[in-house]
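Tokens as discussed.
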């Protein structure tokens, strides 16, 4: 089972460091919780503050400014951040000049409540307001509380060149859309991240060109819902209907953007996340099949295998339509791996609905999964309209069953790789053995193998000798042709 996305379970968020600018004398400690978008946003924040005289530090105790980029997706994500704030408070007692700021989804959701409730917070900045940080930090340095949580119709940070924080120098994230218009009833994201808008393909290509020059080998295109990417000159996705005929006829959709990226940078490996099944087109699948450098992996959250529950969640597809999409994926890209997000114990979920989830999983046999017990979020449609009526023990029991089944399927999937030779991009040293490299194959499965003479960032062909349910273990047989 992959857990990289479930970062809220970490005690400490990802602390971020970067190369430092000479002449900058203020110290910024910034850590991120939650999704990859938050990691990517923290890189934008570091870039904006570098111009204000801040270098990043990994030592919280040394910091003049501490920023925590937060997640609201489930209650325990918020609780983790609250505990972290208490810890900052203890450091602040020793170092009273240290300023503390909350960024991201909790900032947006709780707004000024933070300044009132959590006395240690000096600064509250929502996901679309990072450009205002220089002013806000100035306010805070003058001893005043500062807040900006205005969501934007336009902001995409297209022209901010992110400082790559604690990067392995091999793989990077590039944001292509912000916000989400889907209004899944359980989800807080549309409220904390605002309406959906797409970024100019030119600025996406420029960012990738810059990454290539810096020797990066893999780019993940990021958005809450990448398949609904649509550039028509700017503005909200929902206003596309009102755009001029010229804007409509020259619009770029996600399949076209993928094609553009993969053609322009044949040596870069592309991934993308996340795909909402309702927006995934056959064009995207054909584009993936056409380009060797687009990884054969789709994260395709489904949340439930019951059409009734899907409807209550306001997901715009049935169980059968999802299965049809999976069939099409298997037909067009036979080697494609799939992963899911699943929620157990959503409002009104019966035992029969739960069985539908298990049987859908049997049908797909996902390679990986990210599974959660439903956590009611204040202000969402589900919180307003439905009763959170599945008892916690039942949610947890169903979750355990879903996780156990996923583990079985993950093992089934990793076994399919045995004996094959697969291209792996080396991303770092294996956590378990410093004499082994770790990387991923096109299907996003982690592969470890002896280092020999290979280097970080090499594309290597690896023969898969054995496996666990999460990892392939192999031996390199030479460089791949893409190296
Ligand atoms: N489109 C997004 C989804 C963000 S939320 C993306 O980029 O991944 C990630 C996952 O968290 C969702 O797919 C869902 O499975 C889970 N989730 C969201 N709200 C939740 C809630 N209220 N309770 C439990 N899980 C939730
Ligand atoms: Fe949330 Fe649904 Fe959008 S899960 S991020 S509202 S696609």
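Sequence:
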């Amino acid at each position: 089972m992959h857990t990289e996305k479930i970062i809220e379970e970490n005690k400490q968020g990802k602390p971020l460091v970067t190369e430092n600018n000479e002449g900058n004398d203020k110290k910024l400690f910034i850590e991120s919780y939650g999704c990859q978008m938050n990691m990517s946003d923290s890189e934008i924040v570091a870039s904006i503050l570098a111009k204000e005289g801040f270098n990043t530090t990994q030592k919280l105790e040394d910091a003049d400014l501490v920023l925590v980029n937060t997640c609201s997706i489930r209650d325990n994500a918020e609780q983790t951040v609250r505990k972290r704030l208490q810890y900052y408070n203890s450091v602040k007692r020793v170092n009273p000049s240290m300023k503390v700021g909350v960024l991201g989804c909790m900032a947006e959701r709780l707004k000024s409540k933070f300044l009132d409730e959590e006395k240690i917070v000096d600064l509250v900045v929502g996901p679309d307001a990072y450009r205002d940080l220089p002013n806000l930090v100035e306010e805070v340095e003058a001893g005043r509380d500062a807040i900006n949580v205005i969501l934007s119709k336009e902001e995409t940070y297209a022209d901010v060149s992110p400082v790559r924080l604690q990067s392995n120098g091999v793989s990077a994230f590039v944001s292509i859309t912000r916000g989400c218009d889907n209004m899944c009833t359980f989800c807080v994201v549309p409220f904390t991240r605002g309406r959906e808008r797409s970024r100019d393909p030119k600025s996406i290509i420029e960012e990738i060109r810059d990454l290539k020059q810096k020797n990066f080998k893999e780019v993940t295109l990021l958005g809450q819902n990448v398949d609904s990417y649509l550039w028509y000159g700017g503005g909200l996705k929902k206003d596309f209907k009102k755009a001029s005929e010229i804007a409509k006829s020259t619009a770029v959709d996600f399949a076209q953007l993928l094609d553009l990226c993969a053609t322009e940078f044949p040596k870069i490996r592309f991934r993308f996340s996340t795909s909402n099944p309702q927006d995934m087109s056959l064009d995207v699948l054909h584009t993936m099949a056409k380009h060797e450098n687009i990884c054969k992996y789709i994260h395709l959250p489904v949340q439930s295998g019951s059409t009734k529950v899907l409807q209550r969640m306001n997901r715009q597809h049935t169980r059968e339509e999802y299965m049809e999409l999976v069939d099409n994926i298997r037909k067009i890209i036979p080697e494609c791996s799939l992963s899911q997000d699943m929620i157990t114990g959503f409002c009104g979920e019966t035992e029969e609905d739960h069985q539908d989830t298990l049987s859908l999983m049997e049908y797909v046999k996902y390679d990986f999964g990210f599974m959660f017990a439903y956590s009611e979020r204040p202000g969402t449609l589900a919180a307003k309209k439905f009763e959170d009526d599945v008892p916690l023990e039942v949610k947890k029991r169903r979750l355990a069953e879903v996780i156990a089944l996923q583990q079985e399927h993950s093992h089934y999937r990793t076994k399919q790789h045995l004996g094959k030779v697969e291209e792996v991009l080396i991303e770092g040293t294996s956590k378990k053995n410093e004499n082994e490299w770790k990387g991923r194959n096109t299907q996003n499965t982690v592969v470890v193998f002896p280092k020999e003479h290979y280097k970080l960032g090499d594309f290597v062909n690896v023969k898969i000798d054995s496996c666990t349910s999460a990892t392939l273990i192999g031996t390199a047989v030479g460089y791949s042709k893409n190296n």
